[in-house]
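re: that chain from earlier
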Amino acid sequence: MSTARPFSERYWDEVETWSRDRIAEHQLAKLRQQLTYVYGASGFYRRQWDDLGFTPGDLRSLEDLRHLPLVAKADYVATLEESPPWGSALAAPLRDVRRVHFSSGTTSSPTPVCWTESDLDRWADVYARAAYSQGTRDTDVFQCLFTYSWFVGGLGFTSGYGRVGTTVVPGGAAETERQIETIFRYGTTAVAGTPSFMVHIADTADALGRPLRESAVRSVTVGGEPGGAVPATRARIEELWGAKCFDGYGSLEFQPIAWECEEQAGGHLPEDFAYAEVLDADSRQPVPDGSPGVLVLTHLDKKATPLVRWWTGDVVVRDASPCACGRARRGGLARGMRESALPALGVDLGRDRKDRRRRERVRRAWASVSGAPGPRRSSGHPRRHLRGLRHAHGSGRPRCRLQPPRCCVPLP
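^ sequence. v structure.
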């Protein structure tokens, strides 16, 4: 695992210091290159654009990208059915594909997303940028507490923190007491995992008489489920660990999407990696900065499975206010909820309001990780409260109950 050299003591990459004008200029140039590549390499996009009479040369401004259709998960799944098993959206020869990660299979069969060698290198470097912005350096010991079985984030964090030069402990999300012992014995200074596991491991450490606030950990990054951006959850994690808690946001298709810097003032989007639009859910037109809308993303340089105008379904607010860290902030994102639902820990409450017992069980589950009012069990993993509940984006099957959606809000 290579160690790259940071641009400066504060910034991992020079792009973090660019002006808005320079970012826009770079995005337009990269979009022209990327659309040309995608048109030549992806049968799915080529047919789609040919039907519209669009060629990559028609892109003369960033606004011209709106002439292309939005692409959603159902469209991607259709390419897999059309050309199994890899799909007609695959834009690189299979011999160049170095890694495949899969979706959870909530709404369809697990769908593959692929990476070439250059894609993996880019992925690691963007994760390194996130880690560095949170104060992580090559003198740190990083313990990854995300699961590695099928979940995409664990390897992303491992690669990124390794690139910064940290000593990486790939712990995974099991064997809680061993994780605690490792944290104390080897002087772990930075960890990453889901909010619920962070609370669980801290509660267990307290019960063992080894509170994690007395460990060397000073940085806790959370993702994979709701919580990090919720003030009550963040406060609870920081109190339990005696460390700063940073929220991270990503998806299988885009790794990562945004992260908080040391200022903890909202997510930074890597705008040299992805071009972002925030659109009204009904009109599909851009909303002003500061207004909620659905996030739409386009890869600027991905080779294996590049996505153009990907409809994430995540409601966000783009924040244009300056960040004290000095990084450009038009790409700053504050996350909201999934489109057309009010999910909490992966359960859709908006579609089944009559089931009060189910709602109460969800309230207890949320309380266990957020500190919100309500009954709470002090023992066991918080996710146990979710057994038998319907996943927000599933078809009623409980198979995904332990992998909540990535962008949620707490109950009122």
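Residues 339-412 have pLDDT under 50 and may be disordered.
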